[in-house]
Design goal:
Cofactor: Zn(2+)
Order of helices and strands: EHHHEHHEHHEHEEEHEHEEEHEH
GO molecular function, one term: zinc ion binding
Pfam families: S-methyl_trans
EC number: 2.1.1.10
Number of helices: 12
Enzyme class: transferase
Length: about 290
């Protein structure tokens, strides 16, 4: 099992940061990069083998809308990898995954949880292509294509990954046996079954949806699965807050691993303490 980190945004909020603007956690790439480094360090110290960069919601378009010039926006996006690498160097053997969130994250209107953006594949390609190259050229160990809600967007991203020939995991946001956009999940997994993708799976979903999705991902692609759900709470896009109760990944992780998940961690609302618990259970199981 490769233990991933947990959510970046909730860990930053727990440290007192207001992430309510459209840039979300990417704002701190500009305003307080040391705090991003501190969260990466907290996850590594908790036992995570992989730090996921603060680039999920980082895009040239998003930064430009916030008054940042293009050259500086490109520098900030690439800096997300450098920040994680500098912390990673304190922990030999650990990895950095450059986060690539969906087009809907840039819109900051909740559409990342719906998909069906109403734009062409060409628009999606023009958005994702330059950002993938910026992140890839910064030298992460792999890309984390994550929280993808729509098979149309997946097709564009997979085509770009094949052209760039860079390793990545590919992770959908889901609702039961379908993508958030409503496509059958097994069909969506098949899209990502290319050589450059090292693992296929799901994130930012209910923990209860993970096991069947992992089984489907392995059956369809023959690849290891990646699984990092949230705590099972629901995001209210109107009030911009999480509601309900949840459970950390340690509760279910070994069932997911038995089904074929190799990369396991957490997403929204999963913090360093949850990853520490997962790591402790993993070590106990290994003994």
């Amino acid at each position: 099992m490769v233990i991933l980190d947990g959510g970046l945004s909730n860990a930053l909020e727990d440290r007192g940061h207001d992430l309510s603007d459209a840039l979300w956690s990417a704002r701190l790439l500009r305003d307080d990069p040391a705090e991003i480094a501190a969260v990466h360090r907290a996850y590594y110290e908790a036992g995570a083998m992989v730090a996921t960069t603060a680039s999920y919601q980082a895009s040239v378009v998003g930064f430009e809308r916030a008054g940042v010039g293009r050259a500086e926006a490109e520098r900030l996006i690439a800096s997300s990898v450098r920040i994680a690498q500098e912390v990673r160097d304190e922990f030999p053997g650990r990895l950095v995954a450059a986060s690539v969130g969906p087009y809907g994250a840039m819109l900051a209107d909740g559409s990342e949880y719906r998909g069906r953006y109403g734009v062409t594949s060409a628009v999606l390609r023009d958005f994702h292509g330059p950002r993938l190259e910026l992140l890839m050229n910064a030298g992460p160990d792999l890309l984390a294509i994550e929280t993808i809600p729509d098979a149309q967007e997946a097709e564009v991203l997979v085509e770009l990954l094949a052209e760039l020939d860079f390793p990545a995991w590919f992770s959908y946001s889901i609702d039961g046996s379908h993508t958030r956009a409503g496509q059958p999940l097994r069909d969506a997994f098949a899209i990502a079954a290319i050589d450059q993708v090292v693992a296929v799976g799901i994130n930012c979903c209910r923990p209860e949806d993970v096991l069947s999705a992992v089984e489907a991902a392995v059956a369809v692609t023959g690849k290891p699965a990646v699984a990092y759900p949230n705590r099972g709470e629901s995001w209210d896009a109107n009030t911009k807050r999480w509601v309900g109760n949840g459970t950390g990944p340690a509760t279910f992780a070994f069932d997911w691993a038995a089904a074929g998940a190799t990369y396991i961690g957490g997403c929204c609302r999963v913090g360093p303490n949850d990853i520490r618990e997962l790591h402790a259970k993993y070590l106990a199981e290994e003994v």
